[in-house]
Automatic annotation (TrEMBL):
Reaction(s) catalysed (UniProt annotation): dTMP + ATP = dTDP + ADP
Function: Phosphorylation of dTMP to form dTDP in both de novo and salvage pathways of dTTP synthesis.
Pfam families hit by this protein: Thymidylate_kin
Biological process terms in GO annotation: dTDP biosynthetic process; dTTP biosynthetic process; dUDP biosynthetic process
Species assigned in the record: Anoxybacteroides voinovskiense
InterPro entries, A to Z: P-loop_NTPase (IPR027417), Thymidylate_kin-like_dom (IPR039430), Thymidylate_kin_CS (IPR018095), Thymidylate_kinase (IPR018094)
Protein name: Thymidylate kinase
A cellular component annotation (GO) from this entry: cytosol
Length: 212
């Protein structure tokens, strides 16, 4: 059975969650069986790990502890939710996956992309996304969007410096170069309607290409 595991990546405030919800409705209307989920989280255990990682009070958290907690949440979410959905032939839309760890912990935290890739390979056992949409945005704009949204809670990672968020973007751009067959860059500074149109065109192209 062909499986469709699409991840959505990008700096904070790039617009991933907004577009995933639009893509989910669009694909459902077309008759596809879709599971939209997020990392860290998506299931009870991983949501609990999320609360620990993102609690602004946990200022002393060590970078390697952070990387391991993200990998642990990823593992549980993968086995409990993503793999069963893929086995049932569903399309999985995942708000962040392994590339977040590579860009945030590997590059921006300075732990090393290859080191963080290695602990995550243990966690994911080869379950890389079929396709990853990378929402590219100047972090200044992303952070302005977040701080402009009163409903959005500000978490421990949001509170990092602007230079940390700029390094996150640099990390992602390295990943786009390193995995060109998997990661596609979208200009996330465009309007919601335009970003959605770009995302649908890429995703439908992938679905049609891989249809049995
Ligand atoms: N293309 C866009 N243009 C302007 N504002 C946008 C756009 N896309 C999303 N927004 C707004 O920006 C804010 C952040 O959007 P969203 O939550 O979708 O981003 P995100 O990438 O999921 O962020 P995070 O990863 O930090 O949770 C929201 O208030 C949303 O309405
Ligand atoms: C999966 C993952 C996430 N992060 C960071 C990225 C964001 O700052 C937060 C998650 O918040 P969101 O509102 O759900 O985007 O966590 C990370 O640093 N490493 C990861 O692997």
């Amino acid at each position: 059975m062909t499986s469709y595991f699409f991840s959505f990546e990008g700096p904070d405030g790039a617009g991933k969650t907004t577009i995933i919800s639009m893509v989910e409705s669009f694909l459902r209307d077309k008759g596809w069986d879709v599971v939209a989920t997020r990392e860290p989280g998506g299931i009870e255990i991983a949501e609990k790990i999320r609360d620990i990682i993102l609690n602004p009070a946990h200022k002393v958290m060590d970078g390697r502890t952070e990387a391991l907690l993200y990998a642990a949440a990823r593992r549980q979410h993968l086995v409990e939710k993503v793999i069963p959905a893929l086995k049932d032939g569903k399309i999985v839309l995942c708000d962040r996956f392994i590339d977040s760890s590579l860009a945030y912990q590997g590059f921006a935290r300075g732990l090393g992309i290859d080191e963080v890739l290695s602990i995550n390979q243990f966690a994911i056992e080869g379950y890389f996304p079929t396709l990853t949409l990378y929402f590219d945005i100047d972090p200044k704009i992303g952070l302005e969007r977040i701080y402009g949204n009163e409903k959005r809670e500000i978490n421990r990672l949001d509170l990092e410096s602007l230079s940390f968020h700029e390094n996150v973007r640099k990390g992602y751009l390295q990943l786009v170069e390193r995995f060109p067959e998997r990661i596609v860059l979208l200009d996330a500074s465009k309007s919601v309607a335009d970003v959605f149109a770009d995302a649908i065109s890429i995703l439908m192209g992938n679905l049609e290409k891989n249809m049995p």
